[in-house]
Amino acid sequence: MPGLTVTRFTAAAASVAACAATLLVASSSPVEAVPGLAGRSYVSVSVTPAPIPGGGPLRIAFAEKDRVSLSAGCNRMIGTVTAKGDRLVFSQLASTKMACPPPRDHADGWAVDFAKQSPSYRLVGPGLTLSTPTTTVLLREDSA
Prior knowledge:
Helix content: 25-40%
Strand content: 35-45%
Strand order of the largest sheet: 5-4-3-2-1-8-7-6
Mean pLDDT: 82
Largest sheet: 8 strands, antiparallel
Structural class: alpha+beta
CATH class of the largest domain: Mainly Beta
C-alpha cells in the first residue's frame, strides 16, 4: 500500500502545482475590467437633456485594468471601474478638493451622481456613449 500513498501524493502534488501555474499565468496577463476601454481617454461632445453645471466637459480616462479618472470641469476624481454586463460600476472614487466658482461648483456633484447610477456604455469606434435613465453623454476619444 505504500505505492498508493505515493501515487496519491504525487497526483495531489501535480494538481497543486498545476493550479499554482494557472494562477501565475492568469495573474501575470493583463485583465481589462471594462473590455475595449483600457488605456483610452474620452471627452464629452454632448450631454442631454441638460448640460453639466458650468459646461463641463466630462473627461474620463480608463487606465490599466480597473483604474479610472474623471472630471466634469472642476475637481479630478480617481478610483476603480468594472463592467457588469453593459453597465459601468464605479467604486472607491477619491477627489481633489479645489473650490470652483459657480456654476462649476456643482460639476462634481453632477459627476458623482452620474457615476452612482452605473451608466450603460456603448463603444463604437472612437465614440463612447454613457447613459442613465435621465442623462446621455456622447464622448469622443481624446488623443491628448
